[in-house]
Amino acid sequence: MDSLKIAVLPGDGVGEDIVPDVLPVLDRLAEIHGSVKFDWRRYDWNCRYYLEHGEMMPADGLDQLSDHDAIFLGAVGDPARVPDHISLWGLLIKIRREFEQVLNIRPAKSLKGIRSPLQDGNSFDFVVVRENSEGEYSQIGGRLGTGADEIAVQNAVFTRKAIERAVRYAYQLAASRAKKVTAATKSNGIIHTMPFWDEISQQVAQEDESITFDLQHIDALAANFITKPHTYDVVVASNLFGDILTDMGAAMMGSIGVAPAANLNVNGKWPSMFEPVHGSAPDIVGKGIANPMGQLWTAKMMLEHLGYEDMGEHLLGAIEAVLADGVKTPDIGGTATTGEVIAAVNAEIGS
Ligand SMILES: NC(=O)C1=CN([C@@H]2O[C@H](COP(=O)(O)OP(=O)(O)OC[C@H]3O[C@@H](n4cnc5c(N)ncnc54)[C@H](O)[C@@H]3O)[C@@H](O)[C@H]2O)C=CC1
Ligand SMILES: CC(=O)C(=O)O
Ligand SMILES: [K+]
Ligand SMILES: [Mn+2]
Q: In the structure, which protein residues have their CB atom closer than 6 angstroms to any atom of ligand 2?
């Protein structure tokens, strides 16, 4: 039997409320399928660790993580105690960068049992491919001066290699879906990087004419998400645009608590990392009402990535059945607790 060595990082906030309780569901799924078992290795690296040690993870933290089949993470951030740029860049973004998890794949679709805030919210199904290694999230820049003359400069970095990689991945994905790729741009306002993005994505688009390709300015695209969400299949976007569009996708589904994500390493050198779209939700932490669906659906993406598609489908089926049954946390209109939703998914999985 295969054994999968998975690094488990609950992280902060609701990550700690959800992640540990999701693992037994996956163990049960593995037991039923009989072809694999999980070897969970927990790492409690988070803002508490930072306050004790002055860093978000040990100096050899990445070394320790490198030796796993995947990383299963909750969320990072405790903004009342540690500035976000320190906590996120010290753990989450550090792992994404150092492990070359260059793509962040974030599906969104209408789900039975959840009411979308959209008027036309019952028939959308799209995936955002977010460039995850560069773009607007760069460490290049700085601050200068004081008082009224104080300034800050932040440089965005775009490379041909990363743009081609993201658009090609979007194309591959679209080929197995509705054969449509939309690239998010803003070349009418950002005059160096975004025309570069447009040019390269159009070049990649020319390689495969079986896919419909469209460039849309991010402002119009955001509006279209609201008014005609069913017109999207695969959306490819820079790091910042993809970050924003995927919180929108989550909201369109009914709550950020249900949205999953995969940070993919595509060169096979390091593990990929699976974490839901949401953050640590400090406003609801410890109340037992955090929605675990996003973390569960994220687990489905991890299983799929590791080659256990059947287990992933089984899990997603159970998630959808529980939603349709109305076992829901308050963010999606229910009264169930985190634990009750997880128990319902566990029961739905069968034995
Ligand atoms: N990938 C990550 O680890 C991310 C971390 N963060 C960090 O998380 C902290 C909070 O950030 P926010 O901007 O407030 O975003 P957030 O995603 O944590 O919360 C936004 C809103 O969604 C709700 N929410 C989030 N997850 C939920 C769940 N599972 N069930 C029900 N409701 C849920 C929260 O209660 C809040 O009202 C910050 O430190 C931020 O930097 C934010 C986004 C992503
Ligand atoms: C940090 C953040 O907001 C994200 O990765 O989605
Ligand atoms: K997260
Ligand atoms: Mn985000």
A: 88, 243, 277
Neighbour-count burial of 71, counting CB atoms closer than 10 A to its CB (0-12 exposed, 13-18 middle, 19+ buried)? buried
CA 285–ligand 1 middle distance (angstroms): 10
Q: How many Å lie between the centroid of ligand 1 and the Cα of residue 231?
A: 28
Q: Relative to the CA of 11, which ligand 1 atom is closest? A: 3
Structural domain includes residue 226: yes
Q: Is the ipTM reported for this complex over the cut 0.95?
A: yes
What is the total count of domains within the chain? 2
Q: Are residues 301 and 235 in the same domain?
A: no
Question: Domain range spanning residue 198?
Answer: 116-253
Mean pLDDT over 81-90 rounds to: 97
Whole-number Å distance between alpha carbons of 253 and 125: 10
Token digits of residue 259: 């949205």
Q: Is the CB of 75 under 6 A from ligand 1?
A: yes
Residue among 281, 301, 312 at smallest CA distance from 18: 281
Atom number, ligand 1, closest to the C-alpha of residue 283:
35
23 Cβ partners below 8 Å, 6+ apart?
8, 38, 40
Q: Which residues pair with 75 in a beta bridge?
A: 11
Distance 307 CA to ligand 4 centre (A): 27
**What whole-number distance in Å separates Cα of residue 323 and Cα of residue 329?**
10
As given in the structure block, the two tokens for residue 283 are 């406003």
Q: Looking at the CA of residue 18, tell me the nearest atom of ligand 1.
A: 29
How many angstroms separate the CA atoms of 172 and 167, rounded? 9
Instruction: Tell me 88's DSSP state.
Output: I
pLDDT digits (tens, 9 = 90+) for 5-32: 999 999 999 999 999 999 999 999 999 9
CA of 174 to the centre of ligand 1 (A): 29
Query: Is residue 341 very low, low, confident or very high in pLDDT (cuts 50, 70, 90)?
Result: very high
- Which residue's CA is minimally distant from atom 34 of ligand 1? 281
Query: Given 253, 287, 305, which residue is the final one in a domain?
Result: 253
Whether 26 and 232 have beta carbons less than 8 Å apart is answered as no
| 213 and 141 share one domain | yes
State whether residue 92 is helix, strand or coil: helix
